[in-house]
Amino acid sequence: MSRIFLSLMAILSLPASAMCDDETDALRHVDIPWPPVSEEVIQRYTAFRTVDAITVDGKLDEKTWQEVPRSPRFADLIRGHRTVHDTRAAVAWDDKYLYVGYWIEDPLVTARLTVRDEPIYTDNDVEFFLAFDNAYYEFEINPFGTIYEGLFVWESEYETAGFSKVPELDRSRKEVISVPFNGVGFQKHPRGLRTGYLKWDFPEAKTAAAIDGTVNDNSDRDRGWTVELAFPWSGMKSIALGDSRSIPPEAGDTWRMDFSRFNQFKEAPP
Fold it and tell me: Which one, 75, 146, 174, 223, has least CB within 10 Å?
């Protein structure tokens, strides 16, 4: 069985109701050296190659998902503490796709947004980030299966790496919408400014969510929901410009990804 090694940072954002307290605010703005996380403490995950077919329906009931290792339980993003609800992720791959699965414990599954590229990060969601040398991809999905995605390119590499020659990223075209982005919390990044292309869609990606319970019904307790994603390697080549990695990967390669969850916690009644 082939392997690629993926740096995995499994994080869970604080519930919205807790985001404005003084203690949390102080933690978010503390002065720390760069980088804020040392290489030694970044979680590692080994992604195994699968030979079995995967149907992307959100259920995670294929043999592959029963056999691949799951990540450790996600940790709180701000304090690093154990989270209220269990959340885990797993990764597999074959010649055509990178597969990602999420198991999300939630006694009260809620969702509001139903239109693609609405601000899913204001809903309960799980998120996936895929980092290349000069750009990174962001993906979010809520229990309805509504998605939000975007591509972020480091401005210093926009011309030199050739992103300006990609039609859907060519800012001289009126239909291309780009937004300068200085990071969450508008913290200055040592690499400088990045530009977000929020209408960029990952070519031929397959995405699905499945709910184990009753969505938006607080009269009962739910088990939670699951997410299943498949990103074709062919769709990565235009966003990996200036990147020397092999796509598809070779056994033993290291990729950087981020797996996270945002949840506005509300306990279901007994």
Answer: 174
